[in-house]
Amino acid sequence: MLDVLDDGQNSGLEKFELLSAYLDGEVNASERKQVELWLQEDAVFKAMYNKMRGMHAAIEQIPMPPVTEPINKFADEVFAKIDQRRQLRFLKVVGGACVAGMVAAGAVFTATFQGSNHQMQMAKSVLPTSVPNSLSILVKPTPLMVALNDSIVQISPNKAVTPKSKADIIDLLDDGDDL
Amino acid sequence: METPLPQQRVSVDSLSNHDLILMAQDGARPDRAALTEIMKRYRSHVDRLLYHLAPDWQDRADLSQEVWIRVYRNIKNLNEPEKFRGWLSRIATNLFYDELRKRKRNSSPLSLDAPILLNGSELDWEIAADGPSPEDNMATREFYEQLRVAIADLPDAFRQTIILREIDGRSYEEIAETTQVSIGTVKSRIARARLRLQEQLSGYLGS
């Protein structure tokens, strides 16, 4: 089909492409001049141009299948989809927030209880490695301990008996309650 | 004392396209009455574009609705209402290409990028030699049906390119940007698509 356009210098395809671009107004000044020269001088080229123009006009006028759906119904369907998606997004956001809240609450709960255990574990791990003397610093004497250190029954220094012999010691032990 | 004139409610169908778009952009959400009127005026353009871009898709109506959902969501971002038609076309085209990528159609395209063999078998389209005479049928329904079929039968890349040019009126540069090819490729595809259509319909177009 295009070989009829071939002029020895330009292939038929090159000329056809240039003609097509010319029809669309997509050529530069020199190309336009060249195409217009061909149109003047070459009847075959001119006929090709007319066919191309006819096709160009025809494509624009291709009838469309009739639209049976009224525009209001079409619009309602579009708006219904928009509303539906908006509700879905809202639910996703609310649902996401709920899940996030539950996760956060769970995290706080876990941190609270696991955190205190962790502190106890730290304390356990520190104490055994401490030197015994540090206990006296860490543990304050309590009244109970003071009581244990004090004698329950006040013994008057005047009544104190200093054992002088083995027999005296036995007497001291036997004094009072029967064993 | 001057009494204020009762404010008349202007019917949307009496508004210009420009004012209609401004009305649709007004408010927190697009005005639905205005948008319905915009649909009324531009729906056929969208449908025509999709009809030729995706002739074999059975769900074009859904695609068309999706275009208008995008319009609803983005119309506030349209800064130049006078460019609405082009903006709408880009939404439709982008949506089509998004959908096309999703579908990853595996139909093996008949490449028109390959060198054309003028008398070879590659472009040896079957032309109805015994068809009606061209003079009588240029404007007939049969011609348009043949043309529609011929366009639908074009390889995807070529059909999309020629449609963006012929139906949507886009420049080569815009088509190159949309289809992500060079302007030279656009120029070549449009020419070859035209050549093929002319060959296929030569019986109608005359000598």
Shape verdict of chain A: elongated
Looking at how many chains there are and whether they match, the oligomeric state comes to: heterodimer
Total E-strand runs of chain A: 0
First-last Cα distance of chain A: 137 Å
> Which structural category do the helix and sheet elements of chain A fall into?
mainly alpha
- Mean pLDDT value of chain A: 75
Largest sheet of chain A: none
Q: Mean pLDDT across all residues of chain B, rounded?
A: 82
Q: Could you please describe the fold and organization of this structure?
A:
The complex is a heterodimer of chains A (179) and B (207). Chain A is an all-alpha fold and 179 residues long. Among the domains of chain A are: 3-60, no CATH class; 69-133. In chain A, 68% of the residues lie in helices and 0% in strands. Chain A is built from seven helices and no strands. In chain A, helix 2 (29-41) packs across helix 3. The radius of gyration of chain A is 55 Å and the shape is elongated. Chain B has helices at residues 17-25, 32-53, 60-74, 84-103, 134-137, 141-153, 156-166, 172-179, 183-200, 202-205. The model of chain B is unreliable at 108-131 (pLDDT under 50). In chain B, helix 7 (156-166) packs across helix 9 and helix 8 (172-179) packs across helix 9. Chain B is mainly alpha-helical. Chain B has two domains: 12-103, Orthogonal Bundle (Rna Polymerase Sigma Factor, Chain: A); 134-205, Winged helix-like DNA-binding domain superfamily/Winged helix DNA-binding domain (Arc Repressor Mutant, subunit A). Classes of the chains: A mainly alpha (179), B mainly alpha (207). At the A-B interface, helix 1, helix 3 and helix 4 of A face helix 2, helix 3, helix 6, helix 7 and helix 9 of B.
